[in-house]
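Practice set, problem 2.
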Amino acid sequence: CDFKSAELVGCRFNDVDLEHSNFNDTSASGLVVKNANLKSSKLTNADLSACEFEDVDFAGARFDSSNMRSAKFRDANLANVSFSDCDLSEVSFHEVYFDHTDFSDSNVSGVQLKNCEGNIILDGEICSPEQLI
């Protein structure tokens, strides 16, 4: 699906397969996504502030240069995901799996982690998720 430059403010996606979808430059503040496949999706330069993602597989997705402020990720797969140059302030990660998830050059102030596992890349170094906070 191609949602490039779309206005999806306050929308809900439940039980969807959106693998390889394009959300670049999308305004989706307050979007709620549950039980979804967004593997290898492009979500760059998007406004995803205050979005909620529950039981979502984002493996290989790119969020580069996006506003993620106050977003919530619960029971999500973030393996090989790039959050480079994002505003991740006040983002909540609960029961999230990280594997080479890239947080380089991102604002991670106030990030909350609960029951997360795996590893992340922070400014070129591989480390544990706890080193974000």
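Problem 2, part (b): a different protein.
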Amino acid sequence: MQPIKRESVADLVYEQIMEQILKGEWAPGSKIPSENELSKLLGVSRISIREAFQRLVSLGILETRQGDGTYVKEFTPGVYMNSLIPLCVLDPVDLKEVMEYRKITEIETSGLAAERATQADIEELQEIYARMQASIDDISAFAAEDLNFHLAMAKASKNSLIIKVNQIVKNILSVSMSDIVSSLGTHMGLYYHKQLIDAVIRRDPELAKRIMAEHIEITIESLQGRFMS
């Protein structure tokens, strides 16, 4: 492990701890160094160490034993899914596979969102859309809000598994969204997202699914020959 000198210190602490666990340096059931020890080893504050610990505990990867220290938990299938998060960051993004994943999941998710969205969900979608409109000249900001929109649609589905899986692959989706917006611009996203909001407001799941299907199909067609081989 190396001292951390970049921004997002807590995230980088998290990544280094995960790397030690995934490499088997810290085996399930083993006690890991204390906050003080890791603070000195990595050259960061105890606050950053604590934030990383809290994140890993919430994912079920670490457990804190009162008065005893912090331990690596025995892996369960759910923990294995959570441990994909850093691998998603490190692996190269295959845009074709990402779009296939989105085609499989987002169409039905949109239908569920149209059925189950609360007024608060609708307002969140509208707020994100407004931020997209305000970011049409900033590709990076627009891509971030574009992804936020799709994650908000998943949230509106009220399906906890869909929401969790999207969070696991969020980093992959983020990279692919930047590629898409950089290549195709902002007009398409604004058009289809407005149509999706209207379908959710109308509580029309079949319309929402048709709009999302068309949105993804046109995106795939537009990207042929650029990112996909």
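Answer key, part (b): The longest strand covers residues 62-65. The radius of gyration is 20 Å.
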